[in-house]
Amino acid sequence: MANLVREVRAVIPENALEIAQCTDPGVVRSHNEDAIFADSRLGLAILADGMGGYNAGEVASGMAITRLAEDLERLIASSSLKDHALGCDVATVERHIVNEVGAANFAIFHASESTPRYAGMGTTLVLAWFYDNRMSVAHIGDSRLYRLRGDDLQLLTRDHSLLQEQIDSGMISPEQARYSDHKNLVTRALGVDPMVDVEVHDFDVVAGDIVLLCSDGLNDMVEDEEIALALRTLRGNLQLAANHLVQMANDNGGRDNVSVILVKVLADFSAPRGWWQRLQQLLK
């Protein structure tokens, strides 16, 4: 699916975040059921990997991205949240995410129930909302978010999948999981039920961090060590890094659609704290 692009009002300082993105149907699939959205001015990155019958996965992921991008843009640009952005707190941001993801979930579920050809459709979701030198991360399913800090790549999400449950219970080892036949069986998805349990966590970010959002078409084809090496080597050219990660997945077989969003933190974007700074910000 094509990237969703619109003109939006900046709420993150210019040159604080750099974003690169790339999506591809892969070598085997005939069409792309992934959908992505990212905007450095809003501090938003969203990725969805659709599932379902013919074209239904593409519909589900497209609905998720469109609905969340529009609703969160409206929310962030609202006067109440702009004022709040001068001193964001984690609980408020997480509450907004849960509410908006819940609304998107119900919209997809309703479309699935009311249109026979879309029956059973759903999508994974991973979302990052950057604010006040932090990011709130929401995810459902097995799309992932990693953070490269220095030379250390850390997976910050935990898959909602049968495979992850088997690892957690000790039934199989992480090494055995690499060769499992159950890699694509998710235990949680957006739009499958009237309500969904979205997992949300908050993390700090610092200048130099690179955040990677990806569909499982990347991490099923490319080992974490190879992803880390590519990011460390190409961190100076973010778009080249994004393109290279997708190409690596395709070179290794490209059995699924593959999408990546890279967000590099370039500078501080903390909220002003003193009353004078708050007044200056309001007068801009």
UniProtKB/TrEMBL annotation:
Highest taxon above the source species: Bacteria
Coiled coil region boundaries: none
InterPro entries hit by this protein: PP2C, PPM-type-like_dom_sf, PPM-type_phosphatase-like_dom
Domain PPM-type phosphatase: 18-265
Entry-linked SMART domains: PP2C_SIG (SM00331), PP2Cc (SM00332)
Pfam families found in the cross-reference section: PP2C_2
Name of this protein: Stp1/IreP family PP2C-type Ser/Thr phosphatase
